[in-house]
């Protein structure tokens, strides 16, 4: 049996950038290499490997999708220059945990595709397709930054909803915690904040930076900048989270007033009412400012996920099984959140001492990861 | 003899993007195609073509660099999705004007490399090298967005200063006007505003957009946004021009707080005192805000050009030769501005009815372009 550190070292170099972070985008070479590693791990445990026609990969102990199977796993893909734990920890832990689960139990391990939305823009794309929450032809048409569609990357239009999901008895996803709220090695998730992504297109008039009088300008960079500050202020006032972390500028030249600035608003709140009010207020302020700047703003929701309350009795039960592990909510989206609308679902979190995630500095200790594996093995044995 | 419209049509499709604007970056395929066209135009007029080892291309009637030669021309390169007139109009007009200048006159036509700084970041790179204003090894090391250096693109380290420039009697660059100040078909330049580019690196701490509490964030996007608005406000208060048209974000992911936002400030003013005060005030405000955001800001001047006052008696003379053409300053940089420190230099502007430039919408009428060619022929005949 591999120890955690040994197995972790096998995948650590795959897709690692000079920044120390990872470039493991869905269906690109590093993520495909990780999928090969997944097949090898499954094979060494005599597990059956299947794909679901949506880009999701599975290893099964017992018949694939057999009634009563407990499903675990997570995702391989990263945000650009993200940490190595976000996603892969759940898959590595699943293979090590299953070694501790009695051989007669039916367990599946999943590697969901495009959880981050880092390549095709829609997070949890694989689990959304699998559960029927996402239209397959819409998914096929999603494009990455180079214009390659998800359908092209997959080599086919995804098949969409997998009805045999109804056979799954429970889902348990183990994941590194992405804040600093967890003070013990392992915790259990209560809920995922409602959250979403809104693309904001600020359009103005491209012109010469040197010769265009300030009063004649229709500069969308101003409207964008104002909106960034307004979103931050609204989030602080409402106790929500708002971030503008991605920007695209046309023509993006030093000596040209932009014709278009495109920014993405990531917003999350403890309840849907607060989230809706936050986004409405940001859009209202952006629109008002656009009127003053002579620009326009068009807002497109790219993905909006309502609050996910994980199965309460299941979370309470698992907390007890794990010796009163703390139960806590998260602001981060997960495939488990999508699956929870269809199957009794739980999440285990592994402590993140600094809370840093989506950054090369993301880290969890070996001891906490080993505690996570032990907890996952306990939970899988208990549930299966 | 070609009419303006005929010759213009020859180059109109080269490097044209779907936006209607141009992607004619220095030493890339479209600009190299335009250089081939330049050689063919020179050849059809029995002109000698030379290169100067700095990426600048010349066609000569008479011996290259012969004492008493009058030099005209402009540049082929564009900003990303820029207009077709900015630069190429001066070269096309030069070839058509020379057809009207008596055959015994010594005239040179130049195509200067990298006037926009759109590929390697330093505008007027070719004329700066030629005049000795730019160190050749520093120029060789400048990199484009793909990491290719100017030296690599050129195939050699540039040779730098060309001492035979002292033989040139006068320089006249014809250019489309880039504001709306010119109300007649042709005008004469008085001065170029002092101007420059400052790279601003806003550094913070990359983290998860969903899980990081607002109070724990060190988000450089906020400092950037504040600085964009501060620069705009300072420019309006001081009668200067300030623009942030280019942005780079790391990691540039929707669900990650950026670790770095890099913005470029383009600033220009009627005098150096105002420009210095503007930039100082923007940097002061950015630094103050960075203190509040828990971020840092580092400002690097990439190129700063002091005020250029073109040869006053020459401008007055040319205005008279052209029937009292108006004399006006510009906020746009030009190779003629760099050359004016070494050779008596003038510029002719062709009317731009909307004032739009550095945009696909940039335009001058055929009639005004023909008037420009006639004026350039008159001036070249007068000076040579």
TrEMBL record, chains A, B:
* Pfam families listed in its UniProt record: Peptidase_M20
Matching InterPro entries: Amidase_Cbmase, Bact_exopeptidase_dim_dom, Peptidase_M20
- Give the Gene Ontology MF terms in alphabetical order: hydrolase activity, acting on carbon-nitrogen (but not peptide) bonds, in linear amidines; metal ion binding
What are the binding positions for Zn(2+) 2 in this chain?
86, 116, 358
Key words of the record: Hydrolase, Metal-binding, Zinc
Which residues hold allantoate? Answer: 197, 255, 268
What cofactors does the UniProt entry give for this protein? Zn(2+)
Residue positions annotated to bind Zn(2+) 1 are 75, 86, 175
Cofactor-binding details, from the entry: Binds 2 Zn(2+) ions per subunit.
Signal sequence segment:
none
Q: In which family does this protein belong, per the annotation?
A: Belongs to the peptidase M20 family.
What name is this protein filed under?
Answer: N-carbamoyl-L-amino-acid hydrolase
Which organism is the protein's source? Actinoplanes derwentensis
Lineage, uppermost ranks: Bacteria, Bacillati, Actinomycetota, Actinomycetes, Micromonosporales
